[in-house]
Amino acid sequence: MSFQQGLSGLDAASVALDVIGNNIANASTVGFKSGNPHFSDVYAASLGLVGASQVGIGANVSAIQQQFSQGNVTTTDNPLDLAINGRGFFRMSNDGATTYTRNGQFHLDNQGYVINDQNLRLTGYVAANGVVSSTLGELQLSASQIAPLATSTVSLGLNLDAGQPAGYSYSTALPVFDTLGESHVLTTSYVRTAAGPWDVSASLDNAVPAGSQPVGSLTFDSAGVLQTPQPLTLPSWTPSNGAAAWTASLDLAGTTQYGSESTVNTLEQNGYTTGSLLGISVGDDGILQGRYSNQQTLNLGQVALATFANPNGLLNLGNNQWTLTSASGPELIAVAGSGGRGVLQSAAVEDSNVDLTNALVEQIIAQRNYQANAQTIKTQDAIIQTLLSLR
Predict the structure, then answer these.
(1) What confidence tens digit (pLDDT) does each residue in 343-390 have?
(2) Of 230, 239, 168, nearest to 198 (Cα)?
(3) N or C: which end of the chain has fewer CB within 10 A?
(4) In this predicted model, what pLDDT tens digit does every residue of 40-81 receive, in sequence order?
(5) What is the rounded CA–CA span in Å between residue 315 and residue 31?
């Protein structure tokens, strides 16, 4: 029986060395989770024997459990590299089949899909016109230009000098955009009238529509606070480039009449020209946001994370990919940072969680176990040789 016990010990120690060797080999593999062999003793089933009389017949490898502890996070220069700080797995699509990974080394293919080194596509919540939906799909980032947006609201915060006499004029200009994204210069002028209010007029590229001036007037109380803060409607202009007729509201809320020089405090408009994609960033909630040449940003999608009741029940497919099984339970999908899921860090990856120092010590221990089990076989062989030599 000692032969069987020794052989089972050799097998168990060999498996341990295999697992440790695999851990060491993957010490630099992004997202790798180390394995840990579990052993159990083996007893032969026999009738009539009580526990004190039983002699074990060796050891057995009962399971090899992966350790899903957090690995260190290392920064990179790629904004699409993602590290999960906490629980969760990236969902990858392989021609419709879903696998899971902790390796967040991603880049774009020639169709704009976010992929890994095996050309599996990252999945998440897709976006349309900058609005992230609740629909899961393969994340595809469009490199097309943003369509222009015609200016519809102009907001100005001014101070008009209370010490100026009737006939005093102050003007300011800002760029606005038509429906084709072409820029025009909107000039607004403020003229002090004899009665004290200020008449407001406007021109676009120095053109003033006939009979449209003034567009309104501003009155202030004795403390210099604007009494007519409602938006004024600017006249309609028809650009010569074929764009639609343009008009906008002029919001002067916050304008004051104090005894200091006339000046512009705030100046805003909500239009923009076409924009080309310059770069991509990913927030800790997984939202992929495009940055464009017209100073605009647009949400392009959101990474989804999957969690499982029993991650150790996942089946390892290699290439840092797992698939679910009945032991793992179904996937639970949500965004990063919700439901106990980890948050994402862009331009970073999660290192392997292998502790090399610990692995090397475990390797020495497994080697000693192998040598000790080999010695039991050698001893049993010597005993048998002694019996065979009796006369």
Answers:
(1) 999 999 999 999 999 999 999 998 998 888 888 888 887 888 888 887
(2) 168
(3) C
(4) 887 766 555 555 566 777 788 888 888 999 999 999 999 999
(5) 16
